[in-house]
């Protein structure tokens, strides 16, 4: 019965996707955009209305959500087979899809806030779906981090009320304070530095949730909102440079940590974090369409990557240690083919989908004569992406199984059927969409060395990835500096521990407040307690700064 319900819902979403695809082609060919206003209440001069803005970007993003949701529901028929609350899972996923669509088509910030808060609340419910303490801690970290972004969005709504309207398309006036509030909301939702620690922690959710929510839709909501406020961003050069540096730093940090991580799902989550940094950086370089192009393509092959990982983990009794995996080429023929294709598309392998967006972004970066520091960090990050990509390929294809050699491992019908469409998209959608979205040829005249520079970085990253695997496996306990770097990377440069510390500090202050009300105020003054809290905060902050300096010095001497 439940499988029948899931399949019907999947078919309904797929039919909606096909209908919207025809409508999207019409919007692109005739260059249409609709501005729809629905009056909810008109009483004595007081109007309350819902405003919807439809163009080909919003329709394409809705199509993306519907297609991935349809495949995820088919995938969940087998993955959630032993779950006791299948109807609850289906209802929560449906609420997430509705919130995402509301956020996409919303014209004013009030409608966007409804979808934005719905996404935050439902993602929290999905992260704590497995009732365990680790899931609860991950969900609370996600919720508290996203609350900061919600505060920024609420403050921006208040500021827009003073300016006259909540509709962002009507503004020619620029407010730096408004854009800073929006920037805080965007950075928390898209997990940019220093709010990056919640995304790897969110991998406590079921794999279908990770494939839909934390790879392709929820985390890209911040980038999509920044695209809608693109004209605001273009008016302040300094904030553009700050956002560009944050995006490149996020990409570099995620690449470094992914090469040291052993949790299979967290490596894929960190690759998502790296690509979000690339989208933000390209958007700040005034490459709006290329950033949107990469967002759509990345969502397709990253959801496929999560679905392949879910099938592998499902067969390995939910063991997520990468070092225990191997020998999949003997059992998972189709799954391993899908996984390898999505992995190669992730690192921009030539003529797969990821190549058409990544290569164009990197070549335009060379043409635009950007800052040398940005270019160096970006190309190092590209090499790091190839390193952890080939690390995954190395373990999946070349190593042997170390977990349980007597397990029955084979492809699954429902799971493989749900991956076929995403697999075909990972192969061909990049070429098709580059012709569709960019209706004129883009010629970039570069020297031969600059033209093949991306491929050279891929080759260097591939060789370094193999070398790091060899060094870690053979000399793990012999190199003290390597162990220090590994531990430092595990905690995301101290960001995850810092956020947990702040969460504990909030609860400690709450308890201290109750003690003060019970009579301790006669012994200790409020000023003394505030001084103690401030000293604890700055002490922990100095420790993180010293750790970062030691790491940078160590990397400098290693290089």
Automatic annotation (TrEMBL):
Alphabetized InterPro entries for the sequence: ND/Mrp_TM, NU5C-like
Catalytic reaction list: a ubiquinone + NADH + 5 H(+)(in) = a ubiquinol + NAD(+) + 4 H(+)(out)
Entry keyword annotation includes ATP-binding: no
GO molecular function ontology, one term from the record: NADH dehydrogenase activity
Entry keyword Transmembrane helix: yes
Transmembrane segments: 6-29, 50-75, 87-105, 110-131, 177-199, 211-230, 242-260, 292-312, 332-352, 372-393, 413-433, 445-469, 475-494, 539-558
Membrane disposition: Multi-pass membrane protein
Top class in the EC scheme: translocase
Pfam families found in the cross-reference section: Proton_antipo_M (PF00361)
Protein's UniProt name: NADH:ubiquinone reductase (H(+)-translocating)
Organism lineage string: Eukaryota, Metazoa, Ecdysozoa, Arthropoda, Hexapoda
């Amino acid at each position: 019965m439940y499988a029948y319900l899931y399949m019907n819902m999947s078919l309904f979403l797929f039919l909606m996707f096909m209908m919207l695809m025809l409508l999207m082609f019409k919007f692109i060919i005739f260059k249409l955009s609709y501005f729809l206003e629905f009056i909810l209440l008109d009483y004595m001069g007081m109007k309350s209305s819902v405003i919807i803005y439809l163009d080909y970007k919003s329709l394409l993003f809705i199509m993306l959500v519907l297609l991935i949701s349809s495949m995820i529901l088919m995938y969940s028929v087998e993955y959630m087979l032993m779950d006791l609350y299948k109807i609850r899972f289906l209802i929560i996923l449906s609420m997430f899809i509705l919130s995402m669509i509301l956020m996409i088509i919303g014209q004013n910030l009030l409608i966007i806030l409804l979808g934005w808060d719905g996404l935050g609340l439902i993602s929290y419910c999905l992260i704590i779906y497995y009732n365990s303490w680790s899931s609860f801690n991950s969900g609370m970290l996600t919720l508290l981090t996203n609350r900061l972004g919600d505060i920024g969005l609420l403050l921006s709504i208040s500021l827009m009320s003073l300016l006259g309207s909540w509709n962002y398309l009507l503004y020619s006036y620029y407010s730096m304070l408004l854009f800073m509030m929006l920037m805080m909301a965007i950075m928390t939702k898209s997990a940019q530095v220093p709010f990056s620690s919640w995304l790897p922690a969110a991998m406590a959710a079921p794999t279908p949730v990770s494939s839909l929510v934390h790879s392709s839709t929820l985390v890209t909501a911040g980038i999509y909102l920044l695209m809608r406020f693109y004209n605001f961003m273009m008016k302040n050069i300094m904030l553009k440079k700050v956002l560009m540096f944050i995006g490149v730093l996020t990409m570099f940090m995620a690449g470094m940590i992914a090469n040291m991580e052993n949790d299979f799902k967290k490596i894929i989550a960190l690759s998502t974090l790296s690509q979000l940094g690339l989208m933000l950086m390209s958007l700040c370089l005034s490459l709006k369409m290329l950033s949107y192009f990469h967002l759509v393509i990345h969502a397709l092959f990253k959801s496929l990557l999560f679905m392949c990982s879910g099938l592998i983990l499902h067969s390995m009794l939910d063991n997520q240690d990468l070092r225990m995996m191997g020998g999949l080429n003997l059992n998972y023929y189709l799954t391993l083919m899908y996984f390898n294709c999505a992995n190669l598309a992730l690192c921009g392998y030539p003529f797969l989908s990821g190549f058409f967006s990544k290569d164009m972004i990197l070549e335009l970066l060379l043409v635009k004569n950007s800052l040398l520091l940005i270019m160096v960090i970006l190309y190092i990050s590209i090499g790091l992406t190839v390193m952890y990509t080939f690390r995954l390929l190395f373990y999946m294809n070349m190593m042997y199984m170390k977990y349980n050699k007597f397990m029955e491992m084979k492809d699954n019908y429902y799971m493989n059927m749900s991956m076929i469409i995403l697999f075909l998209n990972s192969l061909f959608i990049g070429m098709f969409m580059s012709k569709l979205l960019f209706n004129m040829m883009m010629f970039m005249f570069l020297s031969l060395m600059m033209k093949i520079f991306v491929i050279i970085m891929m080759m260097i990253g591939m060789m370094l990835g193999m070398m790091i695997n060899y060094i870690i496996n053979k000399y793990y306990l012999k190199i003290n500096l390597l162990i220090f770097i590994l531990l430092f990377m595990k905690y995301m440069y101290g960001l995850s521990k810092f956020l947990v510390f702040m969460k504990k500090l909030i609860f400690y202050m709450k308890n201290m407040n109750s003690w003060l009300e019970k009579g301790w105020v006669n012994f200790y003054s409020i000023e003394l307690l505030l001084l103690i809290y401030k000293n604890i905060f700055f002490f922990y902050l100095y420790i993180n700064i010293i750790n970062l300096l030691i790491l940078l010095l160590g990397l400098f001497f290693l290089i």
